[in-house]
Each structure stands twice: as structure tokens, then as C-alpha cells.
Amino acid sequence: MKNIYGLTLEDMQEYFLGIGSKKFHANQLFSWLYEKRIESYSEITDIKKEVIEQIKRDYSIDRLKIVDVQNDIDVSKYLFELEDSEHIEAVLMRHDYGNSICISSEVGCNMGCKFCESGRRKKVRNLETYEMVLQILMIEKLIGERISHVVVMGIGEPFDNYDNLLKFFKIINDPKGLAIGSRHITVSTCGLVPKILEFSDFPLQINLAISLHAPNNELRNKIMPINKVYPLEELIPAIKKYLAKTNRRVTFEYILLKDINDTEKCANELCKLVKGINCYVNLIPYNETNNLGFLRSNTVQIMKFYDILKKNNIGVTIRREFGTNISAACGQLRSKKEEL
Ligand code: SAH
């Protein structure tokens, strides 16, 4: 059965018209779901009984199960169980500017990045829109606080689940939905070129992050197989086109892997690659996972890398680390669960 949290306001309007009812019920229902936060249709008081009965037959209002929570300073990690017993995870980070959540977009992932825990399990299926919305809604309920920032950087490649993702953005951005400002929403992709181009036409001003992780094809091919499909000579022009259309600055994510992509040569090459692009580079200290054989760069090397970018006038930050103690890096929680 379909779930009510997967409908945008527009979808809901169409639905009500389709069942011969009133379009404005969509506003009412949205407000029950996202302002009053009902958990059962029986709480609705301003829509006729017969119409409610019809909604009940068409859409479930069921939530997901949270089956594990782990807390560390400023970070909590939630393991969700889906209706088909699959598991996904979301991570909540407390910043001084508000609560930010990292959500998953797929069960498993097909991108196969060598350093990433999520890719150890092939994609089983896309997450439905409601499964993305509910990660936010349920964590807000559990902590009794609002979430102000959303990043789609959990398990999965969001651009490989494009249609559900866009619906999700519409629902969480809608002033009558979760009302999260588009500039507070970020989506990260490993570089699916056709979708980057398509995304430049999406009307909401959502931040785009690109997992770059290597400054040349030879190295990128080794650690990110997707580069063989969309090599840098296609990825970089696509990003430039995206920039020309949207005028929004992009983020390049660059994980620092010891002796692999953290050399001064790589730093200089990276500068050349991104020079002239309206971007900043987010250097990510690698969160070591048990079985993948990559090591994190030491702090001296990270700082050397950082300085080279700075000297070349590239906007650069080093990601503040959350959750290394509770293995919150991509897919690590789910992996642990499945090892049990
Ligand atoms: N598939 C998307 C989004 C999910 S991954 C993408 O590739 O962008 C989100 C980010 O976390 C990516 O930049 C990914 O490369 C990075 N990542 C994966 N494993 C990591 C680890 N162990 N430590 C630090 N970052 C990691």
C-alpha cells in the first residue's frame, strides 16, 4: 500500500480532485501531517468521515521502526527498519546553527566506491519518498526538536533515485510541509552527469555537492568505478553548465586517504582542476572502516594539503568530524547490524 508521506501538496490536490472531493483538503491534510503531526487519521476533525475512510483505503499513515539509537557528543545515529525488514540509517548532528540530519536514499548502493562501506552491499531498491520524509519526521518527534538542515549523504546514490528524491525535496521544502529552506538542503552525488545536468533545471535552490576524491582519471577510476562511465572530462563541464544555469556555488568533497590521494602532487593537480569554478573544497578526514583497507591521512598531511589549496586561492574547509566513535560514516551502522 502507498504511504501518505510520499505525496507532495500537488499530488494530494490531484488525489482529492480524483476522488471527486475538494482540492483544499490537501492543505488541511498537509497541516495535520506536518504542523499538528498526527499519527492516526482519526485525529482529523475538519474532513468528512467518508473522505477520511477513502484516504485510509488508499494510503497508509504508518511510520518506520527505529530499532537502534546510539549517542555520542553532538551526534546521534538511528537505525531504521523498513516494512520489508531492510535497514537504513540516519545521523543527527548538533551544530551551533541548528540540528542537521544526514539521510539515506537507497537500500544498498551500486556505485561501488572502494573506500565506502555502503557500497559493500549492492543496491536492493530505491527508498520511496515517504521513507526519506519519515527519517526526518520521526527523529524530530523522538528528540522533540526541529531539524533545520538536511544533507542527503547517507546510504545510497541520491541521483540514482532521482524522481523520489525530487518529490522528497518538494515535501520537506514546502512551507506547509516541513518548511526546510532549500539553502539548508544539500544533495551529494558521486557524479552522475546526466542527472547533474537535469538538476540544473530543478526550481528549488538546493545545494549540490560532488564527491570528487581524486584529481585525475587514473586515480579516480581506481577508487570510484563510476568515473569509468563519467570521467572528469565529462563531469567537470557538466558542473560548469550547472553553475552557468544556477549561479550556485558547488562543493567538492575530497576524502583524504593516506598515500593514495593526499600527496602534494594531488593537491596541486586538484587546484588546476577546480581553478575558475565557483566552488569550495571540503576536505574530509577519512573515517576508517573495518574491512576496506584504506587509512586516514595524518594531521600533518591534511594540513599540507589544505595549505596548498589555500595558497592557490581555492575556498577550502576541513570537515568537522562527527561520530567516529559510533562509526557514523556511511553505511557503517547498517553493516554492523548485519554482522550480528
Ligand atoms: N552517493 C553519494 C552520497 C552518499 S556518500 C555520494 O557519493 O556523494 C556521502 C559522502 O561520504 C561521499 O562524499 C562519500 O564519498 C563519503 N564517504 C564514504 N565513506 C566515507 C568514510 N569512511 N569516511 C568519510 N567519508 C566517507
Name its key features:
single chain, 340 residues, alpha/beta, DNA polymerase, domain 1, TIM Barrel, 2 domains, 10-stranded mixed β-sheet, two-stranded parallel sheet, 12 helices, 20% strand, binds S-adenosyl-L-homocysteine
What does this structure look like?
- The protein has 340 residues and is α/β, with parallel strands linked by helices.
- The chain has 2 domains: 2-60, DNA polymerase, domain 1 (Orthogonal Bundle), CATH 1.10.150.530; 65-338, Aldolase class I (TIM Barrel).
- It has helices spanning 9-18, 25-34, 49-58, 129-143, 162-173, 193-199, 217-223, 226-229, 232-246, 264-274, 299-311, 332-339; strands at residues 2-3, 59-60, 65-72, 75-81, 87-95, 98-102, 106-107, 125-126, 149-152, 185-189, 207-211, 250-256, 279-285, 315-318.
- The strands form 3 sheets. The protein has a 10-stranded mixed β-sheet with strand order 3-4-5-6-9-10-11-12-13-14, with helices on one face. It has a two-stranded parallel ribbon with strand order 1-2. It has a two-stranded antiparallel sheet with strand order 7-8.
- Strand 5 and strand 6 form a beta hairpin.
- Helix 4 runs parallel beside helix 5 and helix 6 runs parallel beside helix 9 (232-246).
- The site of S-adenosyl-L-homocysteine has 18 residues, from strand 10 and strand 12.
